[in-house]
Amino acid sequence: MLSDRLISDIIDCGMQSGADLAEVFIEDFKYQNVGMLNGRVMKADSGFDTGYGIRLMSGTNVVYVYSNDSDEEVLMNLTREAASAIKKGDGAKIKEIEDLCRTTLSDIKKHPLDLSKQEFVDYLKQASSIMENYDPAITQSTCSLKTSTRIARIINSNGLNKEEESTRIRLAIEAIATKGNEKQSQRLAPGTLRGFEFLNEYPLLDKTRECCDKAIRMVNAGYAPSGKMPVVINNGFGGVIFHEACGHALESTSVGIKNSYLTDKLGQQIASPVVSARDNARIKGEWGSYATDDEGHESSDLLLIENGILKNYLIDELGARRMNSKATGCSRRESFAYAPTSRMSNTYICAGNDTHDDIIADTEYGLYAASMGGGSVDPATGEFNFAVDEGYMIRNGKIAEPVRGATLIGKGGEVLMNIDKVGNDLELSAGMCGSLSGNVPVTVGQPTIRVSSIIVGGRDAE
Predict the structure, then answer these.
(1) The predicted structure's pLDDT at residue 460
(2) What is the chain's mean pLDDT, rounded?
(3) Considering the entire predicted model, what is its pTM?
(4) Which of 176, 226, 258, 338 would suit a FRET pair with 395, their CA atoms being 20 to 30 Å apart?
(5) Which CATH superfamily is domain 4-220 in?
(6) Phi-psi category of residue 91: left, alpha or beta, with phi > 0 → left and psi -120 to 50 → alpha
(7) Nearest-angstrom CA–CA distance, 439 and 436
């Protein structure tokens, strides 16, 4: 850990260059991971990492350097190099550093890092045993348990001095079914800002059996039809489409440089009037939550869209300077090795008034996307494509036969406008998001929604 004197010296040295902000970021990270393949332990590791990041800002010019070496000479030399590279500005007065403000975010009764790797293995064996003996069609199974504790401290020339400790734990189960040359997989991966007690409460055995059932159902399914049609997207991880096709386009990382299709759209209608959406980092125990962002700002519960009208962007310090706005407490980074940027936390479409069953019953024909998989998006245009992991046809207002191979193709702006039904069954799901500042834990979510018309990529036309 760095001494207060060294931290002050780093800030003083950085500000002498003419920067208007100097920041020191200190991170301690401990972790333990266990992974199994077909009932055998393939990975079991634990460790810790400590590092330091130094950022200087002069207007919209930024220099970031980092090291995992706490040696005073090393860090001062890094600071001098950063200072020599920053574009000289008018500088700013250094404020006295405040007393350290500490926050412990996670609500923990049984700390997962206190458990042995064998206890992790014993827990995972329950799921692995079910998948191994469930049905001959299940030919491969994987499961993993990952936990970490992160202590992050931010000190800057504005006097800020904050530290936050957070512990996360995440389970992942995947069952792969095979029929001839065809393979289909189903996955579940809950995550939380809680302790091991979360897993003791989780219905592991029932969820694992559901995973196997879905994989077998999909490997025996026919192919999805192609063409434009209504699509009902299930709650929970279905929100990944909103996260990718709209959420990234609201980050100042792209908006601040006018590389987003949602640039200069505040106050304008960008979605159907039935759509409202939030980014709320303050949900207790949620995977993507935090109290203090990685620039030291307080987190926010940010209304992004209200009845189709764009209300807010996700803005970090650099974005605030580019956009002549205020930071919104959404700056995040994977570790000290990354400069912070604007990122999502728990981002979701808000609950509406329709029920899941009523939305299905009101759909004469279309596709029901029960669970979504991976995909890609271009924030500049909003163009995306996402795989449907578990799909069914809707016929005469009822869920009919399962179908595989469906892909949803479209533009974020068009899809948001075409949402005509929003359910009352909001559900959130854990995930990981990659961007300029690395991979960070996020939550996606939504209630059941219906998109009145979207391109479905499949194989056969009906």
Answers:
(1) 60
(2) 95
(3) 0.94
(4) 176
(5) PmbA/TldD superfamily (3.30.2290.10)
(6) left
(7) 9
